[in-house]
Amino acid sequence: MEYLYIKSLHIIFITTWFAGLFYIIRLFIYYKEAEEKDETSKNILLPQYKLMIKRLWYIITWPSAVLATLFAIWLLVLQPVWLQQSWMQIKLSFVALLFAYHWSCQIMYNQIEKGSLKYSSFALRIWNEVATLILFSCVFLVVLKSTFDWIFGVVGIVGVSILLMLGVKLYKNIRKKKSWESNKIN
């Protein structure tokens, strides 16, 4: 019974961690786009986004990362045999990538705290999809577990990656076209 409670808590905090990671990049995009607005808009939007980013990062995302990790360690203590299984070893490598991703978001957060985000909104949109790929990878690994199925999962993840990148590119083109048409009208 203890195992099921710990597993449930781990899933809950993984969910809130990913929610925080998905939304933080979205706020970074809004912040970056606000940097390019007129002075009046910038003076209103940038402080508001900074506050939203800080609250999301330190009230939801970081605590969720810590709690998800603690419950994951607890699960591994309860099920140490998992560490000998290839699916778990591969999953842990994706978890390491997730921590690297999280840390990269911390670097971006630090840049905003200093007053300037050094990435374009397009680069941030693409970066946002990396968390999606990590999530897909981890879920498929945990659910499928076998190596054969995992290989098909990787092929699927590559396919999803291509679709995500095409979607981001399409979105960029649509925004560019709308911007061009709007400038043409004015």
Q: How is the main sheet built? A: none
Strand content: under 5%
* Total domains: 1
- Which spans have pLDDT < 50 for at least 5 consecutive residues? none
State mean pLDDT (0 to 100 scale).
Answer: 89
Overall outline: flat
Total number of helical segments?
Answer: 5
Ends apart, CA distance between termini: 65 Å
Number of strands: 0
SS-based class: mainly alpha
Radius of gyration: 19 Å
Order of helices and strands: HHHHH
Q: What is the helical fraction, as a range of percent?
A: over 70%
Verbal overview:
This protein is mostly helical. It has one domain (2-185). Helices cover 89% and strands 0% of the residues. The chain is built from 5 helices and no strands. The chain has helices spanning 2-35, 39-78, 86-114, 121-144, 147-185. Helix 1 (2-35) packs antiparallel against helix 4 (121-144), helix 2 runs antiparallel to helix 3 and helix 3 packs antiparallel against helix 4. The longest helix is centred in the first third of the chain and has 40 residues, at 39-78. It is flat, with a radius of gyration of 19 Å.
Question: What are the defining features of this structure?
Answer:
186 residues, mainly alpha, flat
Topology overview:
Layout: H1 2-35, H2 39-78, H3 86-114, H4 121-144, H5 147-185
Describe the structure concisely.
The chain has 186 residues and is an all-alpha fold.
